[in-house]
Amino acid sequence: KVLCFYTGTEEVEEERIIGKEDGFFISWKPQSGDVISYVVDWCEPHQDLFCNLQWKKLGPNTTFSLISSDTFRPGVRYNFRIYGISTKKTAYLLEYKTGYSQELAPLDSPQVAIANLTSRSFAMTWKDYSTESQPGFIQGYRVYLKARARQCHPGFEKVVLSGTIYLFLYSFELLLFRGITKATI
């Protein structure tokens, strides 16, 4: 029997990890003192609200493990927690890691609103949306502007901001952290 001790006040930062075909390589800092083993747990999400909690117990001299499963799916975010088990059979949360076995392009782009339009500037805003539900990490955004005299490339949607500026909404990009690649929508 192991007691889990986590009050929610510990300073445990989330670290992003990148999965590979054979699973997730997870490593952590060695703990000194009374750690007699480590446990890595993760949840395999299902369609309903429940998840299939999985764990792997490792020895006290181990500081890494390959976590593999036939059920890891592309575009699904997995959260891993690493616990140290003390001699008193108490589990302490040491590290928290999150990643995708394979990142996919975003499902949708934010709904953009333009305000405070002048001949030289404008404000662009959009509502925050859940990054947990996205099939990859959102790294940032790009906005492209083009002078009116230029032609718009086929497939781009023009929105007139003023007499001299068009905003090409189709070229609004969501960049995803996917190794060295990026996805555009």
**Mind telling me the CATH superfamily name of the largest domain?**
Immunoglobulins
- The low-confidence runs, each spanning 5 or more residues with pLDDT under 50, are 162-185
- Globular, elongated, flat, extended or rod-shaped: what is the shape? elongated
Which CATH architecture of the largest domain would you pick?
Sandwich
Largest sheet: 6 strands, mixed
Query: What percent of residues adopt helix (DSSP H or I)?
Result: under 10%
Q: How many distinct beta strands?
A: 15
Number of domains: 2
Mean pLDDT score: 75
Number of helices: 0
- Helix and strand string, N-terminal first? EEEEEEEEEEEEEEE
- Range of strand content: over 45%
The structure class reads: mainly beta
Question: What is the CATH topology descriptor of the largest domain?
Answer: Immunoglobulin-like
Query: What value does the Rg take, in angstroms?
Result: 23 Å
CATH class of the largest domain reads Mainly Beta
End-to-end CA span: 50 Å
